[in-house]
Design a protein that fits this description.
It is built from 7 helices and 9 strands.
Length: about 300
C-alpha cells in the first residue's frame, strides 16, 4: 500500500481574523485547535482544492519552511521517497499561502498556550512573546492588580507561580513546539515559520502567552485548568491553543502507555466531564497524555 503524506487540517484562517471580532466574544468562546498531522492511505484523496502552489522559500527566507509541508504542500518535498511509495499530495495543507496573502499575523492578537511552559527566551520566539509590562519576575509584587504576582510572561498553574519552566528532566518541549507552529518569527532567517509569525518586519506577529498546565510529570487539577483559561481571557488572550490528547484503546501498557476507552460506555466511565463538555479533560486523560509525551519528545520547535 502506498502511503501519502496528507493533512486533514481545518482551515486556520481564524488566526488571521482581526482582533475586534474575538474580543467581543472572548469571555464566552474558546477555540481549541486539534493536532495537525495525520497519515492517510492513497485510497483516501485530499478533498481540498488549491488555488495555486508556490515554493514557500519565495515567501520567507527560512530554511525550515521547506520542511513544513503542512503549511504549503507543493507535492514535491525534499523528504519524498516515491520509490518506496511515500510521496506528497499537492494541496494537502492548511492553506498558508492563501492566508498569508491576506495577513501574516497581528500583534493585537494574543494566543494563550495551555501546555508545558513556553521557552520565552527562544531566539525564534522571543520577539513574539506576550509581555505584561507592568510586572517583573521575582519582585513578589502584583503591580497590575490582577491577582497574580510577577506574571510577566504568563503563569505556571502547576506550581502556582509566575516562573514558567521548561527544563525539567521529564519536560518534552511540547509547549515551545506548538508556540513555534503558531508564532515562530517569520523572515528572521532562523528556525521555522509560524502560521501567524508576522511578515518579517518588527512586531508584526501574534503574541504568545504561556499558561503552563504541565510541568515534567506534574499537571494541574480541573479547577486550576479552568483558572488558566480564565486568566488567559482576563489578560487579553482571544485564542487558546490546547494541544491535549488521549491514548487509543490499542495503546500498549508494556510500552508505558495507558490504554484509552474502546466503547461509549468506557468513555462515559473514564471521562465523564469530556462527555458532557468537550473542552474539559479528566485527570486520567492527562496522565495518558504525559505518557505519550515522554515517548515522543519534541525538543525543537517546528520538529
Amino acid at each position: 500500500m502506498k502511503i501519502r503524506i496528507c493533512s486533514r487540517l481545518p482551515t486556520v484562517s481564524v488566526v488571521w481574523e482581526r482582533s475586534r471580532r474575538y474580543r467581543e466574544t472572548a469571555a464566552s468562546n474558546v477555540l481549541i485547535t486539534p493536532e495537525t498531522t495525520v497519515l492517510t492511505s492513497a485510497k483516501q484523496p485530499c478533498n481540498r482544492k488549491r488555488l495555486h502552489a508556490r515554493q514557500p522559500t519565495a515567501l520567507f527566507q527560512i530554511r525550515g519552511l521547506q520542511f513544513q509541508w503542512h503549511y504549503n504542500n507543493t507535492g514535491t518535498n525534499p523528504f519524498d521517497n516515491p520509490e518506496n511509495g511515500a510521496e506528497s499530495i499537492a494541496g494537502c495543507d492548511v492553506g498558508c499561502v492563501e492566508a498569508w496573502a491576506k495577513c501574516k499575523g497581528d500583534p493585537s492578537i494574543i494566543v494563550a498556550v495551555l501546555d508545558e511552559g513556553v521557552m520565552y527566551t527562544h531566539p525564534d520566539l522571543k520577539d513574539n512573546i506576550w509581555v505584561n509590562e507592568q510586572e517583573n519576575l521575582y519582585s513578589d509584587e502584583d503591580n497590575d492588580g490582577n491577582g497574580y504576582k510577577d506574571d510577566r510572561y504568563g503563569y505556571n498553574f502547576v506550581t502556582n507561580s509566575a516562573i514558567i519552566s521548561w527544563t525539567d528532566t521529564y519536560d518534552t518541549g511540547h509547549g515551545t513546539h506548538v508556540a513555534g507552529s503558531i508564532a515562530a518569527v517569520n523572515g528572521n532567517g532562523k528556525g521555522v515559520c509560524g502560521i501567524a509569525g508576522g511578515d518579517g518586519t518588527a512586531n508584526s506577529g501574534v503574541k504568545i502567552m504561556s499558561c503552563q498546565v504541565f510541568a515534567g510529570q506534574g499537571g494541574v487539577t480541573l479547577s486550576a485548568e479552568a483558572q488558566a483559561i480564565k486568566y488567559a481571557a482576563d489578560n487579553g488572550a482571544v485564542i487558546l491553543q490546547c494541544s491535549w490528547g488521549y491514548n487509543s484503546a490499542d495503546a500498549n501498557a508494556i510500552d508505558g502507555f495507558v490504554p484509552g476507552p474502546a466503547t461509549e460506555a468506557e468513555w462515559t466511565k473514564l471521562y465523564p466531564l469530556e462527555k458532557r463538555s468537550p473542552g474539559l479533560l479528566h485527570q486520567q486523560r492527562r496522565f495518558s497524555e504525559r505518557s505519550h509525551r515522554r515517548r515522543y519528545r519534541h525538543l525543537c520547535i517546528g520538529q
